Amino acid sequence: MIESKSQLDEAASRISLLREEIGRVIVGQQNVVEQLLWCLLAGGHALLEGIPGLGKTMLVRTVADCVSLLFSRIQFTPDLMPSDITGTTLIDFSAQGVAVQRFQPGPLFGNLVLADEINRATPKTQSALLEAMQEGTVTAGGETHVLPKPFFVLATQNPIEQEGTYPLPEAQLDRFLLKIGVDYPSREELKQIVLRTSSVEQHKASVVMDGESLSAIQLMAKQILLADELLDAAVKMIMMTHPGEADAPDDVKRYVRFGAGPRALQAIVGVSKVRALCAGRLHVSWNDIRETAFPVLRHRIVLGYEAQAMGLSSDRMTEAILQSIEAER
Fold first, then answer.
1. Amino acid 312: pLDDT
2. Average pLDDT estimate for 73-94
3. Which residues contact 31 (CB under 8 A, 6 or more apart)?
4. Which residue, among 318, 328, 327, 329, has the nearest Cα to 238 in the 3D structure?
5. Which of 49, 69, 94, 317 lies at a 20 to 30 A Cα distance from 7?
6. Are the C-beta atoms of residues 252 and 319 closer than 8 Å to each other?
């Protein structure tokens, strides 16, 4: 339980220290780092989308170094089989010649798993990853094996290259707590990237938190208070993502095919509590819900063909919903 304001401030200070340590290695990308921290502290998985070379892999590896987690990387390719990521059963022979079965864990058995270019995997391999993300277990050789805790999947995908890719099914997209867009750096950030990577001295992140401390902060975040009024507003927001809803904005009714499900509401509440904790507050504000709505709904609002042809985004639908709710508040 959160027993005092000092305990809350200490957690916020620890999170701030983690943010600063990541910034010693990663240039810019403050929004990406912030949303990735929300995801970790809420105990969920994240999907990072951006063109190659923006430091997505380096960011995930740096977070693992800062939190002292077991890092594992999987480079997805079309020929990758489920057993390549989950592990397989081997047969060993003892000195007496007796055959003994032994399970050899795959790269999924880590705390922080980077699924690089996840959309290059076939549906069969994606389904194996889906079990790990949802249940925290792996089934191989008819046996179920429990994955280590904490367990996070941070996946990346390239939005511009579609050859040899398999779009993630909606059921699997829904398992990602947040979809984080990784933008191109500014001119000054590009300059800093070159200066850091071309110098003799390379920055390396230090450990500022362990798995036990991370779990304690996750538990603390769940105790952040949420007023009924804000919960009702969050419920209304999710309902308004559906084109058949009477009070949905005109853009949603025209351009959206399918809206968000219950996991979206759970994600908004959980991540909003984490954002409040990061700010050292004991309660969720409307601004917390507003800021978390975009990465939560980005991959859960399915646009129609007309919207795709016009180049519209789900963020535009989210903004229309938020403006409609704010007009009534």
1. 86
2. 83
3. 183
4. 318
5. 69
6. no
